[in-house]
């Protein structure tokens, strides 16, 4: 299988879809202080980058899940990239809401599908894994056969790794936090002085910076 990580990370840093600021940390919605912020929605504004990501996902799916019948995106961040992947593979597409629609048909899953269809789930970012796995649960509850999940980036938290194993869902990512730090050093995006902070954050993200 090709290694897509290096080129994708270089592009994500160039377009500032991923920002590293150990000296001026971000505050996440959860209240966590973080030296990193990842916004993969920015990739959609750059044709070269979005095509690279979609084609990379498609290549992985062809190799790992050749019998896939339908692509599912996790709302909202992975809807667009999921459509791009489905288009490359000439497959149907559906997407999973975070909760059921509050009116009309009150759908949790949007689009047409049949029970027992084999589905690969596309996600943009995996942090703790909670929202991603809720989407997997929704698909399984609808009697779809989830082959696995693909994501652009993961922070590599142990909690997420354990949750995916516990839920018997294979997670494959185009790149991850450790590879990001290596690439950022390689292209002089950060200096080695920041390494202790970056490593400490990954070990204890809940308490870092407090």
Provide key terms for this protein:
210 residues; Rossmann fold; single chain; globular; six-stranded mixed β-sheet; two-stranded antiparallel ribbon; 38% helix; alpha/beta
Task: Give a short synopsis of this structure.
By secondary structure, the chain is α/β, with parallel strands linked by helices.
Structural write-up:
The protein is an alpha/beta fold and 210 residues long. The protein has one domain: Rossmann fold (3-Layer(aba) Sandwich), CATH 3.40.50. 38% of the residues lie in helices and 22% in strands. The protein has helices spanning 5-14, 47-64, 79-89, 130-141, 158-166, 177-186, 195-203; strands at 18-20, 26-27, 33-34, 36-38, 70-74, 93-96, 109-110, 118-126, 145-154, 171-176. The strands form 3 sheets. Strands 7-6-5-8-9-10 form a 6-stranded mixed β-sheet, with helices on both faces. Strands 1-4 form a two-stranded antiparallel ribbon. α4 links the parallel β8 and β9 (145-154). α1 (5-14) packs across α6 (177-186) and α2 crosses α3 (79-89). The longest helix has 18 residues, at 47-64. The mean pLDDT is 93.
Helix/strand-derived category reads alpha/beta
Rounded average pLDDT: 93
CATH architectural name:
3-Layer(aba) Sandwich
Which blocks of ≥5 consecutive residues have pLDDT under 50? none
Helical content, roughly?
Answer: 25-40%
How many domains in all?
1
- The total count of helices amounts to 7
**CATH topology description:** Rossmann fold
Shape: globular
Spatial strand sequence of the major β-sheet: 7-6-5-8-9-10
Task: Give the termini separation.
Answer: 41 Å
CATH class: Alpha Beta
Gyration radius from CA atoms, angstroms = 17 Å
Q: How many strands, which pairing sense, and closed or not: the largest β-sheet?
A: 6 strands, mixed
Strand content: 15-25%
How would you spell out the order of helices and strands?
Answer: HEEEEHEHEEEHEHEHH
Based on DSSP secondary structure assignment, what is the total number of beta strands?
10
């Amino acid at each position: 299988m090709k290694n897509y990580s290096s080129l994708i990370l270089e592009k994500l840093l160039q377009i500032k879809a991923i920002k590293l600021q150990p000296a001026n940390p971000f505050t996440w919605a959860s209240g966590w202080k973080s030296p990193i912020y990842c916004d993969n929605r920015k990739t959609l504004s750059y044709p070269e980058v979005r095509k690279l990501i979609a084609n990379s996902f498609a290549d992985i799916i062809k190799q790992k899940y050749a019998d896939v019948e339908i692509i599912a995106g996790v709302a909202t961040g992975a809807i667009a990239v999921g459509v791009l992947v489905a288009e490359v593979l000439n497959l149907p597409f559906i997407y999973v809401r975070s909760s059921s629609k509050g009116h009309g048909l009150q759908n949790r899953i949007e689009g047409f599908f049949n029970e027992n269809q084999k589905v690969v789930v596309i996600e943009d970012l995996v942090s703790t894994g909670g929202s991603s796995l809720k989407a997997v649960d929704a698909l399984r509850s609808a009697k779809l056969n989830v082959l696995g999940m693909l994501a652009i980036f993961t922070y590599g938290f142990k909690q997420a790794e354990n949750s995916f194993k516990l839920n018997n869902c294979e997670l494959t990512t185009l790149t991850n936090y450790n590879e990001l730090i290596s690439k950022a050093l390689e292209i002089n995006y950060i200096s080695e002085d920041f390494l202790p902070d970056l490593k400490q954050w990954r070990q204890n993200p809940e308490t870092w910076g407090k």
